Amino acid sequence: MKTLRDINFNHKKALVRVDFNVPLDDTFSVTDNTRILAAKPTIEKILNDGGSVILMSHLGRPKGKEDKFSLRHIVPELEKVLGRKVRFINDCTGEDVKKAVAGLKPGEVLLLENLRFHPGEKQGDENFAKALADIGADYYINDAFGTAHRAHASTAVIARYFDKEHKAPGILLEKEINSIRKALDKGQKPVTAIIGGAKVSSKIGVIENLLNKVDNLIIVGGMAYTFLKALGNKTGDSIVEDNKLDLAKRILKEAEEKEVKIILPVDLVVADKFSNDAQTKIVDVHHIPDGWQGLDIGPKTRKLIDEVIQNSKTIIWNGPAGVFEFDNFAKGTEQIGLSIGKASGNGAYSLVGGGDSVAAVKKLGLTDKISYISTGGGALLEMLEGKDLPGIVALSD
Ligand code: AMP
Fold first, then answer.
1. Domain range holding 90?
2. How many angstroms separate the alpha carbon of residue 239 from the centre of ligand 1?
3. Mind listing the pLDDT tens digit for each residue in 17-43?
4. Which pTM was predicted?
């Protein structure tokens, strides 16, 4: 596969799939420009070579052409980030777009309208992909890691219409792949993964793949209760997937066979209702009272996890340790962020991904401490599952 650095874009036009699916407020201002900043190195490399850039992205989940999902809203923020003028066109295929592309001069940036205004985008429609490939770009660059696990028209199918010499991953996509592989396949031992979140069912594939890769697997969040119940504990009103108890037992057995240490909570913060205002108490895992539910890990567990993390050379974290949205149950998640920050400061390699974990790291001001913060949610999980992502495969075919 070519890399962006192998290509000289002088007087060339590059069609770049970016992930500008950014949050907007009521006045359509961008409230978090992380994804725009993440695409900047690729855009700048092409412009600095003397090329021009055509940007395409999705925004939200529009049903047809809904103005509130127009990418026009992000132009001011994009101009601010790039420090240059950005032209916008209110479609992504067709004659007007071709004309706009033909008129692009070196150093110019053109932003196309939301790809998902066309149903063909999500359907991976060949005709739509071909129409995108036909707007007049010399190169196709995919820098949208966040959608690389989808075989959509602009993320995978379009790549068929560019030969190997004329397509490549962008700098962000390449960095994501390398960072994830560095942690997952080339991680210095001991390797520890911390997996949290609501349900085991959504992360079975991740857990199973990690059993082949890590020395320690820390299971926290809602999914821990299915494991605790499988081990014979009473779990009160805690979130449990009763149809996954056998799976949890199988995972625990497999971990033993593979000599992977599974770390589950030893104590919990339990609440009498699912609310930030609930009454709380700290109990050990064998004593969850009837009618109460575990919403965070307790202090002994925080300490135990910290010790494992401090003794690790590679750390992978995805998913909160508790109901992090409620301040009173955010301590476990925050402690994991702090522990990883500290271990990274002492030389460990750390990879953090997923909305809640990244939000925790940002809230604690630890972004600079973490070795790599992934911009992917679903895409990261699929990489952690060991799957090949269609958006990446398509670049080498
Ligand atoms: P996921 O999208 O699978 O990573 O799950 C994230 C969600 O898990 C967050 O919204 C958390 O509030 C939720 N969660 C974490 N711990 C618990 C828990 N103990 N009980 C219920 N929900 C939880």
1. 4-173
2. 9
3. 999 999 999 999 999 999 999 999 999
4. 0.92
